[in-house]
Every structure is written in structure tokens, then in C-alpha cells.
Backbone:
């Protein structure tokens, strides 16, 4: 099996695994590493430079750049013979009933970001030369944070899995809080955490080998166990084990009454997290939003919960999948301690911190 997917838990060193794989790869193997966010692109380049040195066979691209450079720009003429790509329009959208060129490009021939995946896939269908060119350029395509893909991106990945290129992907569907096309309807049933079903279908077809990496090197056992409890067991996620055995004097998961928040923050200096800028306004603290903190690590975290998160803690009511993923991201930023502001613990067995 030449196509691999590693689904690793938060803190499972997914990106580092790709870097070490590239470092060990033979220099004659041409490899492109693709990821969605600019932050992750910069981090991969930094680590490769520090750990693998200047390797001519390694290239790092953003997902949109990958589709523009190797799909849209060279092969647009197979769909629109008289047009050339004039750039990229990240924020723009076509009008609802747009057809032809207007579906994919603005008046300046800039490709809409939300339609780039669809255009790229239709170009694959338009000419076999596109995949043949990729096969001549790359021996392997490595995709980091694969759970961020959506819509027609899955059709593109399916085509790559059927190509002569070895495809190696890493990600965590429990952290699926971003999307290359959040409004798209194509493959919507596989959106965010439901991407797991897409992967399992490809594994059943013999196109993909799935490996679960269940060890976190970030979160203490108490935090890792709590993070597992966020998702209904029906999803079938394996349990997380922790390699963090450090003792700091304040370790684990705690509930905290709102009247004790100021003293807690003064004593432990946690990173405060909230769902959005419209929540937790009653606390005059320096908050970071849940989605913004993705990829970060903090010694201690304090969470101002949403109503749904409160119900999960107090009444054992599971969150719907998208909300569970956002909460999971917030919880797993913490290395040593996690505190959640709850005035009435309800049925929760979590310890309550008091001064």
C-alpha cells in the first residue's frame, strides 16, 4: 500500500512526523508537502530548514497554491481555451446562478478561492495530461492537516490516490474546525469530523491504509482522558494515552466558580479561551478564541464555556460534531491544567477548585 493516512490525537506530533519522514527520504525522491493554513506552511518550512537542511527535493505549498500552480494555471485552456489565470480571489464569490467562466473567475480572471477545488477537479476530468504532469514532477505528495479539506478537494484527493504518486496524509478529524470551502455543498456529508467516513470508504476500496496514532506528548493523562469523553463512543475514536508525566503542583482538569476566576487567573496565569468575541464578556480577561488557538500549546488553560458545553459537563449531553471539535481543540491546548468556569457542576464528577 503506497497511500497512507495517519490520524493522530492532539499533541501527537503529526507535523513533526512528516518532517522526520522527509529528513529520512532518499534525496532522489521528489516530495511536495501541502497544507491549508499559512501558519502551518511557515512552521513546516522552519522545521525542514532546521532539521533536514537545504534539500532541493523538498517543496512546501499551500493547498490553494498547489491547485493554482499545478491545475488551474497550466491547464485552464482545456476548459476555457482563450483564458489565462489572472490571479487569486480569496474573498470573492460568484453570483448564485453564474455559469461558465463567471462561475470560477471574477472580471479580472482571478480564480475564486471557493471555486478553485471544483475548477481543479474538472480540469483533471478534462485532460489526463494533468495527472501525468504531476506524476513526472513528484514521487510523493504529503498532506498535513488533511481534515481541513472539503467539497471538491475530496474528489481531487481521490484522483491522486488512484495516480502513480504515493500519497501520505496526516490529520485529526477531531480537530476539523477549519474548511477550504465552508459554504460548499459538494461532499457536504463528509464535512469536518465526518471526513472519517470518507477515509474509511477509501480504505475499504483498497486505496488507503489508515493508522491511528493515539499518544499525546502534550496533554497530561487527566486532560487526555477528558478530551476523549467529548465525543460519543459511537464515533469509534480510540482512547488517548499520554507521555506527559510532569508534575507542576497544579495538574489535571478542574471546574471553577465564576467568583473565584480572578484569584485563579492571578495564581496560575492560564491562557483564557472562549468560543467567540461575543461570548464571555462578563470576564475582563485576555481571551483567545477557540478556532484561533488551533495549533498552539499552553501550560495552563481556562475556558469560558458556551451553554452547550455547560450542558455537556453538567448533564452529559453530547455536543453535535462541529461544536465537539471546537471544544476538543480548546481543551487539548493545555499541557498541565485545564479549568472550566461552571457555577453549578450538576452531575459532573470533575473536581472543583477553590482558593
Residues:
Amino acid at each position: 500500500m503506497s497511500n497512507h493516512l495517519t490520524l493522530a490525537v492532539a499533541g501527537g506530533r503529526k507535523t513533526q512526523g512528516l518532517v522526520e519522514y522527509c529528513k529520512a527520504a532518499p534525496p532522489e525522491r521528489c516530495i511536495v508537502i501541502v497544507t491549508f493554513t499559512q501558519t502551518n506552511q511557515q512552521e513546516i518550512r522552519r522545521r525542514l530548514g532546521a532539521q533536514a537542511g537545504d534539500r532541493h527535493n523538498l517543496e512546501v505549498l499551500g493547498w490553494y497554491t498547489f491547485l493554482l500552480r499545478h491545475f488551474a494555471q497550466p491547464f485552464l485552456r482545456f476548459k476555457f481555451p482563450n483564458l489565462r489565470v489572472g490571479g487569486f480571489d480569496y474573498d470573492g464569490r460568484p453570483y448564485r446562478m453564474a455559469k461558465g467562466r463567471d462561475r470560477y473567475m471574477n472580471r479580472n480572471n482571478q480564480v475564486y478561492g471557493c471555486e478553485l477545488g471544483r475548477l481543479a477537479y474538472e480540469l483533471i476530468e478534462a485532460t489526463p495530461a494533468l495527472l501525468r504532469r504531476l506524476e513526472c514532477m513528484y514521487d510523493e505528495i504529503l498532506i498535513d492537516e488533511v481534515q481541513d479539506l472539503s467539497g471538491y478537494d475530496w474528489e481531487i484527493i481521490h484522483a491522486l490516490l488512484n495516480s502513480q504518486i504515493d500519497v501520505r496524509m496526516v490529520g485529526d478529524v477531531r480537530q476539523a474546525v477549519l474548511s477550504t470551502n465552508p459554504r460548499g455543498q459538494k461532499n457536504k456529508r463528509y464535512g469536518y469530523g465526518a471526513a472519517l467516513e470518507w477515509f474509511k470508504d477509501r480504505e475499504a476500496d483498497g486505496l488507503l491504509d489508515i493508522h491511528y496514532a493515539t499518544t499525546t506528548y502534550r496533554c497530561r493523562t487527566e486532560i487526555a482522558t477528558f478530551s476523549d469523553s467529548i465525543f460519543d463512543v459511537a464515533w469509534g475514536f480510540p482512547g488517548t494515552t499520554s507521555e506527559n508525566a510532569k508534575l507542576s503542583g497544579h495538574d489535571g482538569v478542574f471546574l471553577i466558580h465564576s467568583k473565584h476566576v480572578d484569584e485563579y487567573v492571578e495564581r496560575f496565569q492560564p491562557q483564557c479561551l472562549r468560543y467567540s468575541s461575543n461570548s464571555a464578556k462578563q470576564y475582563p480577561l485576555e481571551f483567545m478564541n477557540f478556532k484561533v488557538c488551533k495549533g498552539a500549546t499552553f501550560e495552563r488553560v481556562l475556558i469560558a464555556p458556551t451553554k452547550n458545553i455547560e450542558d455537556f459537563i453538567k448533564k452529559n449531553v453530547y455536543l453535535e460534531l462541529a461544536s465537539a471539535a471546537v471544544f476538543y481543540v480548546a481543551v487539548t491546548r493545555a499541557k498541565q491544567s485545564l479549568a472550566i468556569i461552571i457555577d453549578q457542576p450538576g452531575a459532573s464528577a470533575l473536581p472543583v477548585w477553590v482558593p
